[in-house]
Amino acid sequence: MDKLLLLLPLILLLLTLATTAASQENCTRLCGNINVTRPFGIGSEPGCYVDGFELDCNRSESKLYLGNIEVISIDVFNARAEVYKSISWDCKRDPRERSRRSISMITSSPYTISSDRNKFTAIGCNTVAVFVGKSDQNNYSSGCVSLCDKGTFLSNGSCSGAGCCQAAVPRELRFFNTSLYSFPDQEGNYEWNDTFCSYSFVAEESWYSFKPSDLNETDFFRGNDGKVPLVLDWSIGAVGCEKAKLNSTSYACISSYSVCINAMNGPGYVCNCSPGYQGNPYEENGCRDIDECSMNSSSNPCKSRICVNLPGTYSCLCPKGTSRDPRLGGCLPDDARNIVLVGVCVGVGTLFLVLASFASWRILKVRDVQRRKEKFYQQNLVLLRAEQSSSDVALIERMKIYELDELEKATNNFDKARIVGGGGHGHVYKGILSDQHVVAIKKPKITNQSELGQFINEVFILSQTSHRNVVKFFGCCLQTEVPLLVFEFISGGTLSDHLSDIEKWEPLSFEDRLKIATEVSKALSYLHSEASITIFHRDIKSSNILLDEKNIAKLADFGASRSVNFEQTSITTVVQGTYGYLDPEYHQTGRLTEKSDVYSFGVILTELLSGKIAVPYKSGNTVRHLVMDFLVSLKENSLYKILDPLILKEGEEEIVQIVARLAEKCLKLSGSERPTMMVVEEELEAIRSKKAKKTKMRQYNSEKPIIDDCNSTLSLRDSGVMSYFGGTTTSSEASSRSSTTQYTMEMELKFKNERPR
């Protein structure tokens, strides 16, 4: 009786396995022409699938569905599934009554949007396409701009920004929404062809190739039945392999000779067959041995042609009377003397290697770290010297070279608690040097050749700058694969922090905002016109503007910057920058100029006026963008709707309108219509002077009108802006507009003569 009780658990286990095997045999594994293998199964057949992988088979249509999403294919080996997804479109004939349609897609565990197999694509003329996504932890926003300027020739091929544009898809997304927006040309007109349409979608990256005919009416939409193929990644559960193996009842890798692999795009894990096996690891005995020896003679892995298949591998044998490894050089006849001689040599050599290894082990262990430091030091020194020789600048002599040991000690071995900031290229740590001097140390996240070149470029750029409103560069450490950069430590956070987190940071007054804008304009004017070389920053944004304890602005992060000779006014580069701040003209042409920084500065002015960050945001069910809202508010004489309430309370309406008009000039689509940073700096100085006079006059209760010393450049009627605020423009005023640009050019030449390099 006792023996029977001991055998009872084993009997129950065998019954369970038998029941499972029987249920597997009754599972539907084909829907239309799609194989539905585990972990997938038909939802009406319990026990045929892993939880979360149930699908619906519409047998009348012979189609497979994930909820209401049609499934095209299932790839168990690569843990992917391909589905159909709807296209977002806009085909209104009258652009002033155009619709803004958006398409959403929501997936639940275990699915994520594949980031390496999909692309976000937009098709249209003068179209902004916005992509908003959400993972389990974060929200993402991205997008692209597609232009069709007069004279632009549209041709078949890849999306380059003319008629079609593309953007990458972030990792680990479970939800996304795509929206379309159209905007006027440089003259403010919607010059659409009556038959043009705009589309946006997320699809498998190799699926779409641009054709100009796709812009015509609904040809593209109808030709694809309103849907595109989208690739989904999938994984099992929400934990990695180590924790999943602890729960044997839910562990999905049930086949013998299967292995567990942590998912690459989100939480969970996937299963594969062990090397030497193939099949489905999610099924009982699904992984089967690969018989390498059954291959035809031309691909036999054994050169001796004597192959023995083994579980998960194979073995090659030499015929009798021969020896050697038959997989390498083939089999050779035996020679007893050679065997003995080889054995003696191998024995002596092995003994020597053991003794030599033991003797050198202690030395190598001590010197290994030092050798790596020296290797990286020499590599980076060569790159710095090459940069120095190409620019004829005493680069190395201008900076301090720090030891890695000193910086590790200063940051407590780069403790995560010391991280004070960072971005896509590296973390910034707070460090305290041995002399108690507090510094900021920038350390890269990854190590590759492009990252190294970017840091060398940042070293070169910073070594050429010395300005009160540019973060001070102390030196670098060359003993790491990518140099560590050492800067002055700025304790007041970034401008982005102050605008977006008013609970942590004290709100900025209008005077502070004007001062910050003026200081940033001084820094950019210095980089463009007064530094020893002309520098285009290329990544002006509020998170790259640091504020000290007195709210003095410091421009930082020169990793994307480019320098040119004095005689150059532009440089053609691969487009790089931050969406929301990027110059549309640079995005379309790849031609970087000083006016590209002017556009980004205009976005900064918009942020200072509104108190918002220039990234797409959601208002109700609509995705909006700060710059577009700002320009619309000017046109509709409703600037007050977008202004920060803190600014409205200060009652500086006239000054605010002048600053808003200056921001509008900086945000012109054409770079030739934007002012230079020297002109912007002078206008901001004049605005601050005017504000100071008005404040002083109010203090003395004087009603004497203030004379605007800058009315020729700051008049409310300039460039037709009066119409934005509900005013009218006379014919004489209209005729005088043509002289505005000429005056600006005269002022620009005057500033350059007064402020030589």
Automatic annotation (TrEMBL):
Its main location: membrane. It is a single-pass type I membrane protein. ATP binds at K443. Residues 728-741 have a biased composition (Low complexity). Pfam families: EGF_CA, GUB_WAK_bind, Pkinase. Residues 747-757 have a biased composition (Basic and acidic residues). This is Protein kinase domain-containing protein.
